[in-house]
Amino acid sequence: MAHNHDGKDKEVHYVGDSRVPQNKKKLYPKDYSEYPGNTEPFFPNFLLKEWMVAVVVLVGFLALVMAEEPPLGEQADPTNTGFLPVPDWYFLFLYQLLKFKWASGPFVVVGTVIVPGIAFTALLLAPWLDRSKERRPFKRPVATSLMLISLVAIAILTWEAEDEHEKQLASLPKGSSEEDVKIVDQNDPAYEIYKNQACVNCHGEQLEGITGPPLKGIGDAYSAEQIQHIMDTGKGQMPAGMFQGTPEEKRKLAEWLTKQKTGKPKSTEH
Amino acid sequence: MLKSMYEWLDKRIDITPMWRDVADHEVPEHVNPAHHFSAFIYCFGGLTFFIVVIQILSGMFLTMYYVPDIENAWKSVHYLQNEIAFGQIVRGMHHWGASVSIVMLFLHTLRVFFTGSYKHPREFNWVIGMLLFFVMLGLGFTGYLLPWDNKAYFATKVGIEIAASVPIIGDAAASFLQGGEVVGAQTLARFFALHVFFLPGILLALLGAHFFLIRKQGISGPL
Ligand code: HEM
Questions:
Q1: How many angstroms from the chain centroid is the CA of residue A92?
Q2: What structural domains and CATH numbers belong to chain A?
Q3: How far apart are the C-alpha atoms of B40 and B30, rounded to whole Å?
Q4: What is the DSSP letter of B210?
Q5: What pLDDT is recorded for position A148?
Q6: What residue intervals traverse the membrane (chain B) (predicted)?
Q7: Residue A21: pLDDT above 80?
Q8: By CB atoms within 10 Å of each CB, which of A73, A147, A260, B221 scores lowest?
Q9: What is the mean pLDDT of residues A222-239?
Q10: A190: CA distance to ligand 1 center in Å?
Q11: Nearest-angstrom CA–CA distance, B153 and B145
Q12: Confidence of residue A33 (pLDDT cuts 50, 70, 90)
């Protein structure tokens, strides 16, 4: 029986028939008294403290999980042309970069390869670009300020991308093209007004939309004032001043359009 | 009982030094949040690992229901989320965990950067860390497609278009990701394989190297 370091009998000594040499030196931890300050063993002492921090994070995380349902939109429909694509939030800054004039169109390599390429290569090679012995951030102003500038740039780009996306969503047509949403109250005299106006040429006899978007269910999204405003000033591809008639008729038409409700809970997906 | 089982094993295969080597090393005061509150910044690496473990476990449960084909992917997620007990919680953990792990990863990287811990002799571990960063971004990109809702579909389509616009390697990269003529069945199967087998495998291998180096080199000293 070989005796190992703690004096207990072990059968492990594999001499002759093994790759493990009998007298192989092992890494034995130094005595604790050889370390200065309040050092402590990794396991279990330190890991317990780190677990305390982890518990705080875990509680916060589970609160988030329980409070916020993970989103799931409508099933993917490749023929849907009106959908506004958006990547997950941590890719937004790269996505936004491609919207600059100098980083899109013929210069798109600037946005896809050159700028991210330089940034990530510099990050990857940081230990060789910043070779001084100094570790304190204030003592290496170039590295620190480059990183701070990048962080600010990332924050601004992310915020801009998010803001632009929100605005685009808000201006998207809100009517419904679904089969089961029907035109409401077709006997209302306002429907006659509608049919005699230019509206019908673009938005269709059943409000189903022709060159303009459908107006079925439009009452879920707009008030009568807002619809009158759209009639006066137009919107996107819709020209201004499409309504020709008395203010009274215009008000009636707008009010009738607000009656066009889908009767469904509002879809939040985009 | 447990003790004698352990001793039986230890006698034969001498396992004590293996775990003692991991457990018994000294952790210095300046990274211990119990001694200095500011030392919590040194916890971000461990917290990233903690969230990664949550991602792996919740992901394993998700694959018990998820079906990676374009007919059923969305339906299986919908079913999991709305019909299965705790399905929403498990999916929620994986969904929000993806964001939280990116946040933690980011904070950990900033801690290492601002404390200058990437300097000699830890250059190599920094490079491994950057590779970990890219693998995590890859996991985010491939995972985003899997629920197969409109958001997933169109974001991936745009992502692949952007990849295709890169000179020289763009077309190859795009057809590697897309797998077919359009973003469709083959893309989904491929993203599933990448997300569930390839990238986690690479991630674990890199993590092993990361931790091995930390153990070898010790944590960087106080500033
Ligand atoms: C999945 C991702 C990662 C995990 C789980 C992880 C985990 C860890 C852990 C537990 C430590 C010990 C110290 C601490 O907790 O701060 C550490 C140290 C370190 N990490 Fe990471 N890490 C990851 C990604 C990264 C990244 C992206 C980088 C940088 C590019 C990086 C660079 C380093 C370096 C250089 C050290 C040594 C720091 C020192 O000695 O002070 N790691 N990592």
A1: 7
A2: 89-171 (no CATH), 189-258 (1.10.760.10)
A3: 10
A4: H
A5: 97
A6: 39-67, 96-114, 126-146, 191-214
A7: no
A8: B221
A9: 90
A10: 68
A11: 6
A12: low
Q: Give the closest of A49, A73, A112 to B32, CB-based.
A: A49
On the question of pLDDT at A1 being above 50, the answer is no
Superfamily in which the B43-115+122-217 domain is placed by CATH: Cytochrome Bc1 Complex; Chain C (1.20.810.10)
Any ligand 1 atom below 6 A from CB of B106: no
* pLDDT tens per residue across span A54-96: 999 999 999 999 999 999 999 999 988 778 999 999 999 999 9
Helices B44-62 + B199-217 axis angle, to 10: 150
The pLDDT value recorded for residue A8 is 52
Judge contact between B136 and A60, C-beta under 8 A. no
Q: In a 3-state reduction of DSSP, which class is residue B69?
A: coil
Q: Is the distance from the beta carbon of residue B142 to the nearest atom of ligand 1 less than 6 Å? A: no
Cis peptide leading into residue A44 (ω within 30°):
yes
- pLDDT tens per residue across span B75-107: 999 999 999 999 999 999 999 999 999 999 999
Cβ distance A135 to B220 less than 8 Å, yes or no, reads: yes
- Contact present, A243 and A253 (Cβ < 8 Å): yes
At which residue do the structure tokens 């916060």 appear?
A: A60
Which run of H or of E encompasses B26?
Answer: strand B26-27
pTM assigned to the model: 0.86
Contacts of B32 in chain A (CB under 8 A): 38, 40, 46, 49
Tell me: pLDDT of A155 over 50.
yes
Burial class (CB in 10 A: 0-12, 13-18, 19+), A95: buried
CA–CA separation, B138 and B199 (whole Å): 7
C-alpha to C-alpha distance for B118 and B128, rounded to whole angstroms: 11
